[in-house]
């Protein structure tokens, strides 16, 4: 559906305003779809993001600062997210043996199993993106990268 129909606005200041609104609206639309899929697993998007970062680091530990640097949502409170994941036994925290001021965060087997289970459901959270061809998805990535450059 066209952005004009989605937000019931037919006139925009210019094509750049329309593009901006379209990108923001679509990002929120994708996030809502992904959140609905994750709800069945009892985790949020930021928690999923942290688990994926930790799986990428595994078996090496991560620090909160590393998580902050790599998180998609820079406004998320990484320490609080780790607290919630630890309460669910999806991660552990231990004092770093080489630097007592640092806390090492590791994904647990339960966390790895949860991600494996979520991987098996495929890309349901990204289903709208599958309306694009591979070439169109590559173009979209190039254009989004260009916006941020």
Automatic annotation (TrEMBL):
<dbReference type="InterPro" id="IPR000835">
    <property type="entry name" value="HTH_MarR-typ"/>
</dbReference>
<feature type="domain" description="HTH marR-type">
    <location>
        <begin position="1"/>
        <end position="149"/>
    </location>
</feature>
<dbReference type="Pfam" id="PF12802">
    <property type="entry name" value="MarR_2"/>
</dbReference>
<protein>
    <submittedName>
        <fullName>MarR family transcriptional regulator</fullName>
    </submittedName>
</protein>
<dbReference type="InterPro" id="IPR036388">
    <property type="entry name" value="WH-like_DNA-bd_sf"/>
</dbReference>
<dbReference type="InterPro" id="IPR036390">
    <property type="entry name" value="WH_DNA-bd_sf"/>
</dbReference>
<dbReference type="InterPro" id="IPR039422">
    <property type="entry name" value="MarR/SlyA-like"/>
</dbReference>
